[in-house]
């Protein structure tokens, strides 16, 4: 039997876990409150600019996509801004909100008669009005009439359309378009920054969903830890995660493509894509880096766990892991309203550099290392990002904020000061990436800090990342993620202990 086939039967899985989680009902009031939040912010903006409080906010929902020229429909997921305001699961909808009255309207696609044969019951308009808690419902082919009905007093109603830059993707939101839109006055500039800012700060109902996505994902990560064995394929661990979040958590969608990296692959920051599809065979002595998060009712999670495939840390693995864990923990301990995210990133860099110096990989003055931006060689990505309906939630660079230009800092997805209600990931990492280390070894400034022989020992090490989802509170923060983090906790769980552990300290420590 070949190596690949052997990996598929390397070890029988243990008995299925029992989850205490149950998918919660989602109150549609969540989206009603989101619409009210946007209205308050938009009205305040218009009043401050001495503009009349009138017009309609109009958003176009997502469209179902087929696979290229085939009739294979990809699993639909709603456009995020539309999901935020209306909570609609189906494709092909439009939605509007009257700025003056606050009345909301949905426009529903008119389905052909044979839809009921192939795809199920054709629901009446009243179904969508009740389900999504809106004031009025029309068909999409009646959109011009419906919008005019909402603004009968105006000869040419004003439509606030969603159009603006996503600073993570550098793509623009597409404004709504429909037949006869030229008969309306349109505003492409006002709504996007206001709605984006609304999404930055989470309500209690939103936090409950993000917490649930974290709970499901945390359970699934623990299950992966328990079942990992040398000889398996990376995708088998991805499969265990996906099965758990769907089987026990009711999560049909992931927040993003799973990163299931082992060995040298764990130094590939966004591993798992089509050209690197989680297909390596795990080896004894590998470090694993699994970055995976479930999505529930549009709201997501983003969790990374790093641990040894063998279930026991070597000295080198523990040294790098603890360097990253210390950075992770010190950042979370200091997070509170008013704290600069740039300062937190630099603190994580400094903490990792100091640890690498203690290990003997680096030599010299850490202040000088920081000045030379050596930290970006080992942690080339930003410390974290806003999280919500999107994994990289928008709003990281509000108007007036500029992206830094220095290495490492230029990858920060936000440079904002923290504020209550923000949900942000804390994900420091330490990687041994030849494409970054080799130029650093040739650099006159950076090379003096690097101990070439010691670095050689980590040539195929890969990397470590530790990522938790954290909400900023009025006087600090709360970590929403619940997975083993200390090396002794990880080893205990991988040996079969339940999580959370009954012990609060490692067995060798006095009570």
Task: Provide a compact summary of the structure.
With 511 residues, this protein is of the alpha+beta class.
Work out the helix count.
Answer: 16
CATH homologous superfamily heading of the largest domain: Creatinase/methionine aminopeptidase superfamily
Spatial sequence of strands, sheet with the most strands: 4-3-2-1-5-6
Q: Which CATH-level-2 architecture of the largest domain?
A: Alpha-Beta Complex
Level-1 CATH class name of the largest domain: Alpha Beta
Uncertain segments: 1-13
Rg, nearest Å: 25 Å
Termini, distance in Å? 50 Å
Task: Give your account of this protein's structure.
This protein is of the alpha+beta class and 511 residues long. The chain has 2 domains: 173 residues, Creatine Amidinohydrolase, Chain A, domain 1 (3-Layer(aba) Sandwich); 292 residues, Alpha-Beta Complex (Creatine Amidinohydrolase), CATH 3.90.230. It is built from 16 helices and 17 strands. The strands form 5 sheets. It has a 6-stranded mixed beta sheet with strand order 4-3-2-1-5-6, sandwiched between helices. It has a 3-stranded antiparallel beta sheet with strand order 7-10-11. β16 and β17 form a beta hairpin. α2 packs across α3 and α8 packs across α9. The longest helix has 24 residues. The protein is globular and about 75 Å long. The two termini are 50 Å apart. The N terminus is likely disordered.
């Amino acid at each position: 039997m070949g190596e690949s086939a052997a990996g598929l039967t390397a070890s029988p899985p243990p008995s299925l876990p029992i989850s205490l989680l149950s998918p919660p009902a989602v109150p549609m009031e969540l989206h009603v409150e989101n619409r009210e939040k946007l209205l308050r912010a938009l009205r305040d903006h218009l009043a401050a600019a001495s503009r009349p409080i009138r017009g309609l906010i109009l958003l176009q929902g997502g469209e179902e996509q087929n696979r290229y020229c085939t009739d294979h429909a990809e699993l639909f997921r709603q456009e995020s801004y539309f999901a935020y305001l209306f909570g609609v699961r189906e494709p092909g909808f439009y939605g509007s909100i009257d700025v003056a009255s606050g009345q909301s309207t949905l426009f529903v696609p008119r389905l052909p008669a044979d839809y009921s044969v192939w795809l199920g019951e054709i629901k009446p308009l009243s179904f969508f009005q009740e389900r999504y808690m809106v004031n009025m419902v029309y068909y999409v082919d009646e959109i011009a009439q419906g919008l005019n009905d909402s603004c009968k007093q105006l000869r040419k109603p004003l439509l606030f359309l969603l159009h603006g830059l996503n600073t993570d993707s550098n793509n623009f939101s597409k404004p709504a378009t429909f037949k006869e839109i030229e008969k309306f006055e349109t505003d492409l500039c006002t709504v996007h920054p206001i709605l984006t800012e609304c999404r930055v700060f989470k309500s209690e109902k939103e936090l409950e969903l993000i917490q649930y996505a974290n709970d499901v994902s945390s359970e699934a990560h623990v299950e992966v830890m328990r079942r990992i064995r040398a000889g398996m394929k990376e995708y088998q661990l991805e499969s265990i995660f996906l099965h758990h979040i769907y089987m026990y958590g009711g999560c049909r969608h992931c927040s993003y493509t799973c990163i299931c990296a082992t060995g040298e692959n764990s130094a590939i920051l966004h591993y798992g894509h089509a050209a690197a599809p989680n297909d390596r065979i795990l080896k004894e002595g590998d470090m694993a880096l699994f970055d995976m998060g479930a999505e529930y009712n549009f709201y997501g999670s983003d969790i990374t766990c790093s641990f040894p495939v063998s279930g026991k840390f070597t000295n080198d693995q523990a040294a790098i892991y603890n360097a990253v864990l210390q950075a992770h923990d010190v950042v979370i301990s200091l997070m509170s309203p008013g704290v600069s995210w740039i300062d937190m990133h630099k603190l994580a860099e400094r903490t990792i550099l100091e640890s690498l110096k203690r290990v003997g990989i680096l030599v010299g003055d850490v202040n000088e290392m920081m000045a030379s931006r050596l930290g970006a060689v080992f942690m080339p990505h930003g410390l974290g990002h806003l999280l919500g309906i999107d994994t990289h939630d928008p709003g990281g660079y509000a108007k007036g904020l500029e992206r830094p230009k220095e290495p490492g800092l230029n990858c920060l997805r936000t440079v904002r000061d923290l504020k209550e209600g923000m949900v942000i990931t804390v994900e420091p990492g330490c990687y041994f990436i030849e494409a970054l280390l080799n130029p650093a070894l040739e650099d006159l400034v950076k090379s003096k800090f690097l101990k070439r022989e010691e670095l050689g020992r980590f040539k195929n090490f890969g990397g470590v990342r530790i990522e938790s989802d954290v909400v900023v509170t009025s006087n600090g923060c709360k970590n929403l993620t619940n997975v083993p983090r200390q090396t002794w906790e990880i080893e205990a769980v991988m040996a079969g202990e339940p999580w959370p552990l009954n012990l609060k300290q490692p067995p060798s420590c006095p009570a």
